[in-house]
Amino acid sequence: MAVGMSTPRHTQTAAAYALGVQDGTGEAAGPSAPPTGIDPDHLPDGLVVADETGRIVCFNTAAARITATPRAAALGRPLEHALPLEDLKGRRWWPLTDPYGGLATRVGQPERSLLLPGGREVLVSARYVRDTPRGPVSRVVVSLRGTEARRRSERSDAELIATVAHELRSPLTSVKGFTATLLAKWERFNDDQKRLMLETVDADANRVTRLIAELLDISRIDSGRLELRRQPVDISAAVERHVRALTANGQAPGRFLLRTRQPLPDLWADPDKVDQVLGNLLENAVRHGEGTVTIDITPAHGEGDESGTAVTVSDEGPGIPEESMGRVFTRFWRGSKRGGTGLGLYIVKGIVEAHGGTITVGRGPGGGAEFRFILPVSAPAYLS
Prior knowledge:
The chain is of the alpha+beta class and about 375 residues long. The protein contains ten helices and twelve strands. About 40% of the residues lie in helices and about 20% in strands. The chain is elongated.
């Protein structure tokens, strides 16, 4: 029980017996209670236990916090008075469910959203404990959880929808505008003008395609369904390919420094996903960083026989503020106001972790941002 709150010995014992734990004296609280020594106040969720008369014998610290009801005001009171819950239609919950009456085969209530006085929403589930099959209910055990985590998830989903809608609006407006203009006034434009408009439409269509691909990746990462098709990957060649693409798009060749320490272990990974990680990190270094972009590829040695390949991408720009380091791999984090959805690094982290690897961010030797990811050595199941 909470420090500074004395609880009668019989109340402690009844609560502990209801939980099947020790009562704090080192003796089991009931004949079948395992000696686990768990204190109800150590539980992360709210726990409320009522005895066979419907009066509360256990009201842990989390329950007091979630309901904003002091423990002393709840202990010994009838369950429906100490915990006056209503469903979302305004109906009183305990008379509606009648835990001590009704069918003798009932075992409890599944988790659902209910309201406390004042409109505070909580997630509630209940278990009806019977000493004998079909016997009377001897205890009602109620679990309470706050809705903060669910609301954060809902806000994140709402932000994702808003971001997607915003990012889609601009390219789709451009595509619609140019195609409508070309269809209506095709003869009025010369070939160069037509080509320019069609190239713009093509670029905007690619932007929409990339955004849809990001959304699919996020869905697969969040649901744990990101599929990997592992193949031998030459990580040095992959980096060189990205550097060539960036220089072909106007970056100075001297801006990139690639250093590879040989010999590297054989790397089995999904080449498309590795390209996605490398492309994101290198584009971020070019767009948000300054000076030379250095890519170091080295063997990485873990515990025991584990080994892998480490790739470090660093630049010489202003870097990432210390207070932002913990948010870099979250959704919608943007290192600057230079556009982007803020989803790229979230996806990068998901891809690396799907491979069983790790990724970190810090400050590089040149003062800029430094991203380092490690992919462990692995192989397809049929080669194991």
